[in-house]
Design a protein that fits this description.
With 527 residues, this protein is α/β, with parallel strands linked by helices. It has helices spanning 25-38, 52-61, 88-95, 110-115, 120-134, 148-154, 156-168, 185-198, 214-224, 245-255, 263-266, 269-280, 301-309, 336-345, 355-369, 378-388, 438-450, 502-526, and strands at 6-9, 42-46, 70-76, 100-106, 140-146, 173-178, 203-207, 228-231, 297-298, 327-328, 397-406, 415-424, 427-435, 461-469, 480-487, 492-499.
Length: 527
């Protein structure tokens, strides 16, 4: 296929209807620019007049310029017995002054009768009158045939009449919507083919994911001839979400040969996916196809051995095409290939015949058996490798620490105080600090002792802290695993500690994090 397909993003409107997502006006403006960088053709900004936030967005966005995208306002047809020129919703759409307007109308016969309390004929009238009124007043007019597929299956004749009413007014595209997300790909493809044969207008597709087939349904519709695709970044949307553009776009470009975005822009896909999640305060799904951190991650030793020789053995596309990267994980399933791959990634010179390789693999599997996990703690694994090779540098020596938790009354919150003694460059530092918990207090005391010697630690920030009880049989004496994610202005890294004592496990992960930062800074100076 070489035909063009338009991309219509509705993250800022339909996506924000997701249960856990809320975006400020400034967030929406920032995301709009990221979508423009990706090469999206239409950005649906919201529903003018429905809420102050959307009204604010359309006012602010007027002063912003876009390279590929056109901002779109969304709304409904006029109400029955209220002509478009007096309908508040229609007038709010025009007041937004966007180059594109999308309105939706009802295609399923149960909606006019049961939900809107109007006749089927009245529904046809408001579809036609709304589109006819808007057509000469906007550059591009799109019509969403809401619940079309359910309507078609329930009453084919009436569903087609709604499209005929719309077609008379000549919108620029008619979008067929699987609003309830209940259809399967073979149904979508067949129905789209039948509609395409009967309607002389460009067709589009809008799918929800309630049957977990929104992406497949969208691709089926494209096979049947639609030229306009609607969806959201990361599949955000009401209930189970919308069709995920982060899967649809690379499938179109890389699998179906439809150049809906330039391949150079496609490299922004991971960046845009994660940026939207960050602003929505949603943890990025590492298992998401194409853009997830695990999408090109390899754990089994046989897999790693194969991809070192030829990545296509276990990768369906080069990850760089979507801005992702190949990763090799280390775990109890690892073999020598995993260790050699990681050594190369870390810039550590290691020969496959070196006995140290087997020693590292043995050590790794022993630690994992004790509860360590290095998949999210690659910084700890890198330090482990250096230690096995006798190259790990000791930046300081612990001489002892003590942590006290205290709560002076039921009206006051508890606090922690940590006292620590360490040896740094022949100097003995004895410091104390308070914190909102024992780990925070230890962190503060350690930094207080070290920053005089290593001022670069001021850049180090704790990004995330996770505790997992590995076996519950021992109750409060159970072994715990602590994963710490740290970062500075350049990067992020993970470290791990395991112990029956949660403070000790946290200390071990914290020490690795600090040593990794110091090692990173030393490497910069050496290079």
């Amino acid at each position: 296929m070489t035909r063009n397909v338009e991309l219509y993003d509705t993250t800022l409107r339909d996506g924000t209807q997701s249960e856990d997502i809320s975006l400020t006006t400034d967030d929406k403006v920032k995301i709009a620019h990221k979508l423009d960088e990706l090469g999206i053709h239409y950005i649906e900004g919201g529903w003018p007049g429905s809420n102050p936030k959307d009204a604010d967005f359309f006012e602010k966005i007027k002063t912003h310029a876009f390279e590929t995208a056109r901002i779109t306002a969304f709304g409904s047809t006029c109400r029955a017995e209220v002509p478009p020129e007096r309908d508040e919703n229609i007038q709010a759409l025009l007041a937004a002054e966007t180059p594109v307007i999308t309105i939706f109308g009802k295609s399923w016969d149960i909606h006019p009768i049961n939900a809107m309390n109007i006749t089927l004929e009245q529904n046809l009238d408001i579809i036609y009158e709304s589109l006819k009124y808007l057509k000469p007043r906007v550059e591009t007019l799109l019509y969403d045939a809401e619940h079309f597929f359910d309507g078609y299956k329930n009453n084919r004749e009436y569903a087609m009449k709604t499209l005929e009413a719309a077609a008379v007014a000549r919108p620029d595209c008619v979008i067929l919507c699987d609003t309830n997300g209940g259809c399967l790909p073979h149904e979508i493809e067949t129905i789209v083919q039948e509609v395409k044969a009967a309607v002389d207008l460009p067709l589009g597709i809008h799918c929800h994911n309630d049957s977990d087939t929104a992406v497949a349904n969208t691709l089926a519709a494209i096979r049947a001839g639609v030229v306009h695709v609607q969806g959201t970044i990361n599949g955000f949307g009401e209930r189970c979400g919308n069709a995920n553009l982060c899967s649809i776009i690379p499938n179109l470009v890389l699998k179906m040969g439809i150049p809906c975005v330039e391949e150079e822009r496609l490299k922004n896909l991971v960046k845009v996916s994660r940026y939207v999640n960050e602003l929505a305060n949603i943890v990025h799904d590492k298992h998401q196809p194409y853009v997830g951190a695990s999408a090109f991650a390899h754990k089994g030793g046989i897999h790693v051995s194969a991809i070192r020789k030829d990545p296509t053995t276990y990768e369906h596309i080069p990850p760089e095409k979507v801005g992702n990267r190949q990763r090799v994980l280390v775990s109890d399933l690892s073999g020598a290939s995993n260790v050699l791959y990681k050594a190369k990634e870390f810039g550590i010179d290691l020969d496959s015949k070196d006995a140290k390789v087997r020693e590292i693999v043995k050590k790794l599997k022993d630690l994992e058996n004790r509860g360590y996990q290095f998949e999210g703690a690659e910084a700890s694994f890198e330090l482990l490798m250096e230690e096995a090779l006798g190259k790990r540098e000791n930046y300081f020596e612990l001489m002892g620490y003590r942590v006290i938790d205290e709560r002076k009354s039921s009206k006051n919150p508890p606090f922690s105080e940590a006292t620590i003694m360490i040896r740094v460059k022949e100097s003995i530092e004895h410091t104390a600090a308070i914190g909102n918990g024992p780990v925070n207090a230890l962190d503060n005391a350690l930094r207080k002792a070290l920053e005089r010697f290593y001022p670069e630690l001021k850049e180090l920030k704790l990004k995330d802290y996770k505790v997992r009880v590995l076996a519950g049989e021992a109750g409060t004496a159970a072994v715990t695993r602590v994963l710490i994610e740290s970062g500075d202005k350049d990067s992020r890294w993970g470290t791990v500690g395991v112990s029956e004592n949660i403070v000790q496990a946290s200390w071990d992960a914290l020490i690795d994090s600090i040593e990794y930062k110091l090692r990173k800074e030393r490497s910069k100076k050496d290079s």
